[in-house]
Amino acid sequence: MRYFLVVGEPSGDIHASKLMQALKDVDAEAAFCYIGGAAMRSVAPTCVRDSKELAIMGFVEVLTHLRTISRNLQQCINAIEAWKPDVVILVDFAGFNLKVAQHCHAQGYKVAYYILPKVWAWGARRLKKMRRDLDWLYAILPFEVEYFRKNGIKVAYMGNPLLDELPQHGEAKDGEAFRTQWHLDARPIIALLPGSRPQELAAIFERMCLLAEEEPTYQFVVAGTTAIAATTYETELAHYPSVRLVMNATHALLQNATAAIVTSGTATLETALLGIPQVVVYRGNALSIWIARRLAKVKWASLVNLILNREAVTELIQEQFTLERLRAEWQKILPTSSQREQMLEDYKELQHLVGNAGCAKRIAVDLFAKLTTSTT
């Protein structure tokens, strides 16, 4: 089979690479063409566009880049038409990918969607398009199955891809080797996860690092990602000499951390599944946040709270994300705190709801079976 994948963000790149490998395992003739990143290139070299060039987040940011988005969309469609795949697999990145889906459906291509648009958060206006344009839908959040069923759309939940990518429970961690590799001292580590989008970094970084400057008992360490140049982190950290940086080692950092301060997004679920108490934070463009709050249909921002359907982790969003609030909430997740112990209990329930590893393999088997059935 010929597969064309469209990915827009670093997390999607990793998830898509796992799915590609699983498809290769079940389909001996699997051939790939895609818009993606480094993880996908490690599985197949046929990348037509780097996903970093597509990522534009936020309502205001999108409005100011409409011409660029339109050009990117046309280039994506042209690549699909040239490849003529058996199926187009769209991964997350809803604003862009639903437009791709509309074109592909009109041209008669089969369309699968992995990591579904968060219509449960932003209202139901996209549901009609999803019913019309998508053939197979794969959810990664357990509560999505019932939501879509109530809205007349059948989706499959086969687990969350993070479980295929995180260190397994009980997996040995060599804390001494990690500290030596990154020149860290013996103090307990607090992980700082400021996000993978450049426009988020400046808004979030300062408050995280100011807290670090106040707390010499702990060692604060930033988890850097390839989505942001190392020099950008280094420039920011020049103002905060006590804060250290590790690059492309987020899971190892979390494994060795006592607690974490995490930007809202996929990383909140990663942190919880690794059993690390956290405070969730976010600060962005003021107008984008204003619009988001008026459109949002959910109580919480973090995946942890959304899946549990209650506030298990504290969220400091926009004007709530002050140094004073961060200082107060951070104290509650340190050792000996009763709130920390309750959070760890909540994480056990979360693990049960999310399920077991093997998501990519189960989806690959299911999708390949559907494709072979539909073409016979």
Percent of residues in beta strands?
15-25%
Q: What's the helical proportion of residues?
A: 40-55%
Characterize the overall form.
Answer: globular
**With helices defined by DSSP (H or I, 4 residues minimum), what is the helix count?**
19
The helix-and-strand class reads alpha/beta
Radius of gyration equals 21 Å
Order of strands in the sheet with most strands: 3-2-1-4-5-6-7
The number of E-state strands comes to: 13
Low-pLDDT stretches are 56-65
**What's the main sheet like?**
7 strands, parallel
Report mean pLDDT, rounded to a whole number. 89
Q: CA-to-CA gap between the ends?
A: 13 Å
Write up this protein.
By secondary structure, the chain is α/β, with parallel strands linked by helices. The chain has 19 helices and 13 strands. It has helices spanning 10-26, 38-41, 59-63, 66-83, 94-106, 119-122, 127-133, 144-150, 162-165, 175-181, 198-214, 230-237, 250-255, 266-273, 286-295, 303-308, 323-331, 338-354, 359-374; strands spanning 2-7, 31-36, 47-50, 87-91, 110-114, 136-139, 156-157, 189-193, 219-224, 244-247, 257-263, 278-282, 315-317. The strands form 2 sheets. It has a 7-stranded parallel beta sheet with strand order 3-2-1-4-5-6-7, with helices on both faces. The chain has a 6-stranded parallel beta sheet with strand order 10-9-8-11-12-13, with helices on both faces. The longest helix has 18 residues, at 66-83. Residues 56-65 have low confidence and may be disordered.
